[in-house]
Design goal:
Elements (H helix, E strand, L loop, with lengths): L20 H14 L5 E2 L15 E6 L4 E5 L5 E2 L5 H12 L1 H7 L26 H15 L3 H13 L7 H9 L2 H12 L7 H12 L2 E2 L1 H12 L14 H14 L5 H7 L4 E3 L4 E6 L3 E6 L2 E2 L6 H13 L15 E6 L11 H9 L4 E10 L1 H12 L6 E12 L1 H16 L3 E5 L6 H7 L8 E4 L2 H15 L23 H10 L1 E5 L4 E3 L7 E7 L1 E5 L5 E6 L3 E2 L12 E4 L3 E7 H10 L1 H30 L2
Parallel strand pairs: 11-12, 12-13, 13-14
Antiparallel strand pairs: 1-9, 2-3, 2-8, 4-5, 6-7, 7-8, 10-11, 15-22, 16-21, 17-20, 17-22, 18-19, 18-21
Helix pairs in contact: 1-12, 2-3, 2-4, 2-10, 4-5, 4-7, 4-8, 5-8, 5-9, 6-8, 7-8, 10-11, 14-15, 15-16, 19-20
This protein binds glutamine.
Glutamine binds next to loops.
Length: 619
């Protein structure tokens, strides 16, 4: 079975013209460090000594599953100690953390990888040195018996995203010369860490170390560690986040053996090396790096691989302890309905209530990632007086919510609930992952509501404010022409003459009243019911109730620019434009009033639109 491509094919040259700068950087590392010939190929396992010392491959896998490759990234080499973190993670998930943590420590040993020294309890110092790794393999053997090796091989394959298998020659060579590891095995059995037959456990360990991977595989495996255990190429959840976090911890403190302290200090990216010449480095939430170059330094780490990691970390400032977050950046807009009301046209008594109580409804439009810092900042904005009665969190531009952010957000909802403040979420579907993330902690919070559209959420909150302050919202009541803001100031005679040229129309719920693009041949005065105005692409512009006009831009434009639908059974006066022109000639002062009113209504709409644009583009 050879699913690997021929060794010398350059894998990065399918870019025509401009290359992604990260690939260009890796190219440069490859050409710069190819000149580095210090170090020696490991030959304590004789078969390893046959490796071509000049081979050099660098691969980097991103969190969206792209894999960059430069040089010999498809040349198979044996995984060796790079298997240790994955088998440790596997042991945690297979046997449970308590069992594994009882048997194997997590302190750096300060010793070389093959040290025979155990800690004060006669247990291995950590799972990254041979003693700890052999103990891990022993635990898997305890759980899986004769199937242990295949169980490990398959798990490592899920990290790599493909079937992987053993290099038989290296396995035979390692087994033939592995007495030091056997000695460690017997010592571990003597202290009760290994319970099974030592030679069976060691056989699994030797085969595990002899699994063939490529630099590309190493990058994908590292990226899976960096991605909380989800392989970013295959999408498979390979291990639990608990196991992954603990694995990265021991990689940080012990992954590079007796160079680990220096490594964490200088490079600051959890990593693991193997005497086969591989290094993998996993920067959480950012990238996985895999390199292959068989010349090793005195610690057993690939010389060029170390250089690549150092260069990557320093060039892009990637040390894992070098991070910041702008807490204020997630609020794109923060306003009350005084500034930006819903698109529902309100009748005068509703408008009066809403103006007086506009601070009762506060809207936060959030953006980007919601982290602990961002959510805390939002929560503090809400702790200040005056406290609203309704808070709308619009999440439609939120790209992700961290675990901490989700938990803190849920705690904030609970806090608001204590003050009888209703929390409304918009821009998020109940089926979404973000909803689930928050939902885990919002169990039992009663006044939590969800409307997909922000405008619907604002409209609902406004209705509640109107109700609470005694205003009726009666969709069934009828309004005659005298209540139309567009006709404000007209005399009784002028109104009844206008009524005479209109006819009453009735519409069923859902009926389309106006179609965008049609000739605008009449205007409408809604008498009862509710209609909404929508752009052809589905954006709702306004919700209108009895007493409002629609299609009134027929006075200005020859064609309809939006659709109008009846939300419920509705009635309207329809006035044909041709008759209306005649009416205007007969009633010049009414005509002037109507055009003034129209100008005022359009100006009001524009003011709201401008306020919104301002909020979204300022600062
Ligand atoms: N199989 C090797 C050994 O046990 C692994 C050591 C390593 O890669 N550092 O000696």
């Amino acid at each position: 079975m050879n699913i690997l491509r021929p060794a010398t094919v350059p894998h990065s040259n399918h870019w025509t013209g401009a290359k992604p700068p990260l690939l260009r950087f890796l190219d440069r590392c490859h050409s710069d460090f190819s000149a580095e010939t210090r170090g020696a190929v490991a030959d304590y396992i004789p078969e390893l000594g046959k490796a071509n010392p000049d081979q050099f491959g660098i691969s980097l896998a991103t969190m969206d599953g792209h894999v960059y490759e430069v040089g010999d990234t498809r040349i198979p080499f044996t995984i060796q100690s790079m298997s240790k973190p994955f088998v440790f993670a596997l042991a945690l998930d297979t046997l449970g953390a308590a069992r594994v943590e009882r048997a194997i420590g997590v302190e750096p040993s300060g010793d070389p990888f093959n040290s025979i020294r155990l800690n004060a309890e006669n247990h291995p110092f950590n799972p990254m040195v041979n003693a700890g790794a052999i103990a891990c393999t022993g635990l898997i053997h305890e759980a899986k018996g004769a199937d242990a090796f295949d169980y490990i091989r398959k798990a490592l394959g899920r990290f790599a995203g493909r079937e992987i298998d053993v290099d038989q020659a290296v396995y035979a060579s390692e087994s033939a010369t592995g007495d030091r590891n056997r000695a460690i095995g017997y010592l571990l059995r003597n202290s009760g860490v290994i319970k099974d037959n030592v030679s069976e456990v060691l056989d699994v360990y030797f085969r595990q170390c002899s699994i063939q991977v490529t630099a590309r595989d190493a990058a994908v495996m590292a990226a899976t560690l960096a991605n909380r255990g989800v392989n970013p190429v295959t999408g498979e959840a390979v291990m639990t986040p608990y196991a992954i976090t603990r694995t990265l911890s021991v990689m940080t403190s012990s992954g590079m053996y007796d160079y680990a302290g220096e490594w964490t200090y200088r490079v600051g990216i959890p990593a693991k090396s193997g005497v086969g010449g591989g290094i993998l480095a996993a920067l959480p939430a950012r990238l996985g790096l895999g390199s292959y170059s068989p010349r090793l330094d005195k610690h057993g780490n690939s010389v060029r691989g170390v250089k690549v990691c150092e260069a990557l970390s320093s060039h892009y400032d990637l040390h894992m302890l070098n991070r910041s977050d702008n807490a204020r950046s997630s609020i794109i807009a923060d306003y009350t309905i005084g500034k930006i009301p819903s698109r529902r046209s309100r009748r005068p008594h509703e408008q009066t209530i809403l103006s007086a109580h506009h601070q009762d409804v506060r809207v936060f439009e959030l953006v980007g990632t919601l982290s602990l810092a961002n959510v805390d900042y939002v929560a503090r904005q809400l702790a200040a007086e005056p406290r609203p009665q309704f808070v709308i969190f619009d999440l439609r531009r939120v790209a992700s919510i961290t675990r901490a952010g989700a938990r803190l957000l849920a705690e904030e909802f609970r806090e608001l609930a204590q003050f009888r403040i209703t929390v409304i979420l918009s821009g998020i579907k109940r089926s979404s992952a973000d909803w689930k993330a928050i939902g885990e902690w919002t169990e039992g919070i009663s006044n939590l509501r969800n409307f997909y559209l922000l405008d619907t959420a604002i409209e609902w909150a406004e209705d509640q404010v109107v109700y609470r302050h005694g205003g009726a919202i009666d969709f069934l009541e009828t309004a005659d022409l005298s209540e139309q803001p567009l006709l404000a100031g007209l005399t009784g005679q002028e109104l009844s003459d206008l009524a005479a040229i209109g006819s009453i129309r009735t519409y069923r719920a859902g009926e389309k009243i106006i179609s965008s693009g049609d000739a605008a041949t009449s205007l409408f005065f809604l008498r009862s019911g509710v209609v909404h105005v929508t752009l052809p692409d589905g954006i709702r512009l306004a919700t209108l109730t009895a007493g409002m006009a629609f299609g009134e831009t027929a006075l200005l434009e020859p064609h309809r620019s939006a659709d109008v639908f009846a939300d419920m059974a509705a009635t309207a006066y329809e006035v044909p434009i041709r008759d209306f022109e005649h009416y205007r000639q007969q009633h010049p002062s009414a005509s002037e009033r109507i055009l003034r009113n129209l100008a005022q209504l359009l100006a009001d709409r524009l003011a709201v639109a401008n306020a919104k644009v301002n909020l979204l583009t300022a600062g």
